[in-house]
Amino acid sequence: MPFSPKPREVKYLTGPMIDLELPIFDRNQAQIAKAIHEYNENLARYEARGQEIVWRIRETRVTYDQACAQVRFFREAIIPEVERNLKLVQLSYRTGQEDLTIYLQVQEDMIMNRLKVLEFLRDVNVNLAELERHVGGRLTAPTEAVEPADTSDEAHPLEENNK
Q1: Stated pTM of the model
Q2: Rounded CA gap, 52 and 83, in Å?
Q3: Which residues contact 116 (CB under 8 A, 6 or more apart)?
Q4: Is 142 within a domain?
Q5: Structure letter (DSSP) for residue 74
């Protein structure tokens, strides 16, 4: 049998015998391998955390840019058209061509669009705060997207008729 231990021949016995191996060349290989493994695990966790932070910043930046674009679109395209429609319906109502319900519907549409702009402004500010939290400091925002809209309410046109 090639792998079986060979029996030892002992010719003389005197006293107790002890058989042990002395690790003369132990260079602490097991602890070194364990330390290298732990280092590689920690390095992988560190790199994964860095990639996660970059991914969150990019995702928040995209949603921030989208909210800014929505605010700009509503302020430049939607709100002026709704205001123009409101003025036309107001003139038509004053001349008696339109019913009060049409005028109120257009006015409600104007209010709903202003509320939409405010929701997008809220999203802009929330995403800006998230970006600042992820980056760890203050960011300067584009001023045209963050400035609040002119919400000064003019006198109600129906109240002008009552005066």
Answers
A1: 0.57
A2: 45
A3: 74
A4: no
A5: I
